[in-house]
Amino acid sequence: MLPIALGDATKVIGVLMLADKEYVAVMQLHKYVDDDRLISVINEFIGEIYQRPPVRSSVKRTLRIKRVYDIKVLEIKFPYVLLHVSCEHGTYVRKLIHDIGEVLGVGAHMRELRRVRTGPFREDDYLVNLHELSEAVYLYNELKNQSLLRKYIMPVEYAVSHLPKVVVSDGAVGALTYGADLAIPGIVRLHEHIKKGDLVAILTLKGELVALGRALMDSEEIVNNMKGVAFKTIRVIMPRDVYPRAWGQRYTRTS
Amino acid sequence: MDVTSEGLKFIDELDRFGGVSRRWLIKRDESTDSRYGVLPKTRPISELLRFGIICVDKPPGPTSHEVVAWVKRLLDLPKAGHGGTLESYP
To answer: With CB atoms counted within 10 Å of each terminal CB, which end of chain B scores lower, N or C?
Structure first.
């Protein structure tokens, strides 16, 4: 499963790259170990682990701490073990399996790998293969029928659906798209438990993604105050001038 | 249903999709003007192609990069990008 961002939606790719991932992998054991020991060693790899990226990797090969949230053993059929791994971004499953093999003392390697979740996107929702996509494009180009294309392309907002959210007034949108930070008076509603430093999605009342922001205050502080800058704008997705410019109105002469 | 209620309903749907179960803290009651912007689900196709995501069932052969290039050409887009590879080499 590969989420592909189209056009300006590419601006949210960073969010997906940094999101948690889930994989289904086949581990091949090099010698027999009994199931109880296998499962107990696998369980030792749940939590914070130290991992040195494999030789063939795209990052610096220094020891890193990665969080493995869960490893489920789906099936054991010696020498194969089917695993479901849920982990932090940047965890190498190939290396994880190699390391499990080392601790078991028999050695193991990864036979197959499939990603089943990237952030909010799961394998079971909206998955489209290239043939279906090609068919949808044909239907649209030749017969002006949008139905299939609409079925396969999701609004960009889904890519940030796992983030905490802040909803702003129409009047605040214009300034945000010009790069301004979000001040408390522009906020209509926000999720609870946002902590200073958290990444948030800034949405209009229609649900359109305006920008990604970094919290400068906790949710509770924002609720209890009437002014101040609450979120730093770090990535603007909405184009300028979709909403009217409403800032600095005090200084403009109206006829 | 008015546009503000529809917008908020869509945001609830996003929360469900993303597995977010946080409650809302309401600062004030306000509505949105239907003359500006658009409900994401009713975006014209030309805009959807600029602000959209496709989850592709990647065949095992080609690289993620190749699949993106293919989708880009197919949809005639100026740019497209993917959300991380399984195992990336430089």
So the answer is: C
The answer to whether residues A129 and A140 touch, using CB atoms and an 8 Å cutoff, is no
Put simply, the answer to whether A7 touches B25 (Cβ < 8 Å) is: no
Compute φ and ψ for A187, nearest 5 degrees: -85, 130
Please report the ipTM that was assigned to this predicted complex: 0.92
* Chain A interface test: which of B4, B26, B55 (most A C-beta within 10 Å): B55
Amino acid at A218: D
A:128-187 residues touching chain B, CB 8 A cutoff: 128-130, 133-134, 137, 140, 146, 149-150, 152-165, 167, 169-170, 173, 184, 187
* Domain spans, chain B: 1-42, 43-90
> What is the architecture of the domain spanning A163-236?
Roll (2.30)
Bridge partners of A21, per DSSP, are A87, A118
Over its length of 255 residues, how does chain A's per-residue pLDDT go in tens digits?
A: 889 999 999 999 999 989 999 999 999 999 999 999 999 999 999 999 999 888 877 788 889 999 999 999 999 999 999 999 999 999 999 999 999 999 999 999 999 999 999 999 998 777 899 999 999 999 999 999 999 999 999 999 999 999 999 999 999 999 999 999 999 999 999 999 999 999 999 999 999 999 999 999 999 999 999 999 999 999 999 999 999 987 765 544 443
d(Cα A9, Cα A228) in Å, to the nearest integer? 30
Query: A167, B41: Cβ pair inside 8 Å?
Result: no
